[in-house]
Design brief:
CATH architecture of the largest domain in chain A: 3-Layer(aba) Sandwich
Oligomer: homodimer
Strand order of the largest sheet of chain A: 6-5-4-9-12
Shape of chain A: elongated
Number of strands of chain A: 12
Structural class of chain A: alpha/beta
Order of helices and strands of chain A: HEHHEEHHEHHEHEEEHEEEHE
Strand content of chain A: 15-25%
Largest sheet of chain A: 5 strands, parallel
Amino acid sequence: MLIIDRHQQILEILKRERSAGVTRLARELFASEPTIRRDLAYLEEQGYLKRVYGGAVIGGAPDREIPYNVRAEEQGDAKTIIARKAAKYLHKGAVIFLDGSSTAAHMVEPLKELEDILVVTSGAKTALALAENGIRVISTGGQMITRSFTYVGSHAEACIRSMRADLVFFSCRGLSDDGEMTDISIEEINLRRTMLERAHTKILLCDSSKFGKQYM
Amino acid sequence: MLIIDRHQQILEILKRERSAGVTRLARELFASEPTIRRDLAYLEEQGYLKRVYGGAVIGGAPDREIPYNVRAEEQGDAKTIIARKAAKYLHKGAVIFLDGSSTAAHMVEPLKELEDILVVTSGAKTALALAENGIRVISTGGQMITRSFTYVGSHAEACIRSMRADLVFFSCRGLSDDGEMTDISIEEINLRRTMLERAHTKILLCDSSKFGKQYM
DNA sequence: AGAAAAACGAACAAAAACGAACAAATATTT
DNA sequence: AAATATTTGTTCGTTTTTGTTCGTTTTTCT
């Protein structure tokens, strides 16, 4: 049996039953336990499952609430993968700016793992998802943009300006061919600019669908 | 059976029956009593249940804080009726302060009917609900209180202080017999005080369950 | 109130699961 | 065909979880 087939079967069992033990998987898939463990370790790294003692569960710990704006989408899509890669830059005790983009919302999952972090975000849904997962969060507040459920305006900017962050994770609507970031509204651009000014390390979260699109 | 599955099953039994004994759980889940005790101790630490002699109950003691989502369901009808009554004071073009209480969240429904209003709120879920219904909304921002999903702190207060409202709708945890409002945290009290200072008309949303309860 | 029964926590030993290292088997490249 | 790389299974020491056995505390029954 091909590795990829075994991986697929593990995921199918997990989707069906929400959890599975190493011993059972080993018997059922005719592989040794260490092999199953290696499979599970790999699949966890890719974000498909969560390892627990004795086996694995799908979609993070079942006793934790899953953020509603992330939950809707398939595990392992581009944004989840990007978020997991970006999470490598995180460290304990960090102060983090997150913009209101849906890509940034996917950072909630990896952020859960860290201790003693503080997240400042302009995303209304992101702020809620963070709080629901027990992460310390400050919302910028400000005028709500109904289209994207993000906050902008002078109040939001004043909030960012009064702080300093170790990291900022941000996104944009489009990335033109010569590498310029573009977006829809001037307010969102202004807020992002402020975030970038006040953060030490800047990380752009961007998938290929953004390439070659030009807005403002 | 995986540890995490056993935890899940304990929680499901508890949700269904409100309480369960250690001996019964041990028999039903094929585990020894000390194991069940360790599970219950862990789940209590995580805030999912309250340990009592002989077993555990869900939700915690009545004098302790009730989680937001539970509180939202209780007294649901009363709050809707209150909101409808309070809506009589609204008028077109008004600027309105809303606190983060679950009672205030019920104002979203009547607010939908009005044109050209602006709502300033410290409730994270309230802000989202308003935006989803096409109401112009400004969030105070600030530190998120995980328990109630409301914003407090200097940012939130500064936001309120920079504005003036025609109306403020607010609530409290308890109303002592001599008519004094009490609440859990000093931050929430401070923010409410600021809202009251900056609003012309003040409307307290309160049902009978608050009477005679005293907090801070 | 006092005795019996039940539940408790702590300590300890058995069992299960784990990770790491290594060797065998299988694929892939040269 | 030989060399190399990858995957897999085995072994072993370690960690985690679990069940058992105490003595102690709490509840219940008389």
